[in-house]
Design goal:
The complex is a heterodimer of chains A (about 300) and B (about 350). In chain A, about 80% of the residues lie in helices and about 0% in strands. With about 300 residues, chain A is mainly alpha-helical. Classes of the chains: A mainly alpha (about 300), B alpha+beta (about 350).
Amino acid sequence: MALAELTPAESRSEVRLISSPTAEPLWVRVLLMGITFSFLALFLVLPLVVIFAEALSEGLQVYFHSMEDPDTLSAIGLTLLTAAVSLPLSTLFGVAAAWAIGKFQFRGKNLLVTLIDLPFTVSPVVVGLIFVMLFGREGWLGPWLAEHHIRIIYAVPGVILVTLFVTFPFVARELIPLMESQGTEEEEAACVLGANGWQTFWHVTLPNIKWGLLYGVILCNARAMGEFGAVSVVSGQIRGETNTMPLCVEALYNDYNFVAAFSVASLLAILALVTLILQSVIQWKAKRRLQMAEQAFATGEETL
Amino acid sequence: MSISVENISKNFGTFAALSDVSLTVNTGELVALLGPSGSGKTTLLRIIAGLETPNPTSGPIRFHDEDVGNRYVGDRRVGFVFQHYALFRNMTVAENVAFGMKVRPRRERPSKKEIQRRVHELLQLVQLDVMAHRYPNQLSGGQRQRVALARALAMEPKVLLLDEPFGALDAKVRRELRGWLKRLQQEINITTVFVTHDQDEALELANRVVVMNQGQIEQIGTPDDVFHNPKTEFVVNFLGQVNRFSGSLENGKVCFSTVAWEPPEPDHSVRGPASVFVRPHEFKVEKNPGDDPNFRATVCRIHSAGPNVQIELEAESGETLVAEMSQERYRLLGLERGSEVYVSPMNATFFMNGSC
């Protein structure tokens, strides 16, 4: 039956092939879309449904009650704190790095670009271990830190440090191509007009990169809240002290406290969904702005 | 305010963009830096503006006898118009023009009202006051160019520098803006330097033309001067269409193809091989051999669409050349492909080989 349906479509598609060389036959498109959608349903939508179904399996009251546990609340608090500290810092770093790479020529530029990608390519667990080796009791800086009663590993500073490490490329990655493509002409114009560095950045550079910046910050936030591997290694997973939300989920699950585990997981899932929605809205807005500008330009072109 | 630069050199890595260039621009003058891409003209302009620093061995850059070489670009108070306008895309036209006044230190900053008044005045000057609240991407190329100019003038600069000001515009708009810029420059009487690779633009607009090639100045002179008395082969070649022949100088006569042309002031002291340049309009084409020294040629092609007719010819000696004549004369001669004609040079420019 399927074959009988496909044959006329195939013959039609041959005609279409002539008009558009990249249009695939119908059955190829159906197959590709089918694979994609089944994959998405199986690996993304189903787990999401499971999370919410499990979290709400014993009713809303239990759902909310499970989050009132002091350890869980502390995990939520620590996650928010981590994000609050790492977001501004990686934004600052990202803008500085993108500025340096996009607007200046200097030696070692390629090296810098490669280094920025490092946190993406190194496994988070390895990142955690590196920090333990550096700041742990047996680590390089361990004795000195112990002398001064500074605790980094198995404490909150360690959690924040590794989160910073894994999140710092996001903003830079987003901004570097943007700033490179925009060039330096507008900045030069601002300089000629007498603006100082700060005025140039604030009035000229920043408005031009704000959408890319926001996009980078959102991605960065998602990673900061969701990081498991690296944080798990350096935090020591002390309940109520160094557990973040992802670690808390695991701890609750290992305690066979499924409803609570899935409740916290659902919070993370909601966060992910909000991030995705924000991301699409921003993309859509940026695209619309571009289209409007192009349209306006096309109509403006006819009048001089 | 006059501009003078002395012995300016600039290297980008191993590439010498400018070597030992000196130039003086007088107060109120409109000077064109003319040359092909890579000739260093834009680099020179950017050095004057302070957007590039010349090599440390270079001489001073003076604005009206004051050395500004060590002064930061924003403190030189030059009006600079970029090739691609470089308008601030996130600001309206009015905000773009106001920017230079708004970023001044508080003591020197005009009041809000004063800024508004100036912006309005400047936009009127460039005939764009109705566009004040539009964004740059809502304007056409010619309008953007005018906004860029208004923005540059807002600083009340003593010097106006324009980098390929009409480069990105289509031919018709370019012509309109050219005339408009010339009038504006005379009206506000501002020392102006502009960069162009378009010889028509340079010859039409400028009081003086600086012809540049490979980081050096080939010739400085009035448009008439550089066009009629070119000093180097490069200048002849660059300024308009020209026929080049390898010939020689003998007994004061310029010999090329199968003709010997006598210059009005023959110099008998030099002889030897020479490069000879004749512009298309400097050839006289006749049906019959006249009294003038001439050579025979055959018509290969005729371009008659335009104010003048261009005729491609093949000389008896095998060289191909282009001659130009009026439509009227073309009709009178009744030329067509394959016609036999006699060509006499009315003028020629020649350079002894090896001398330049």
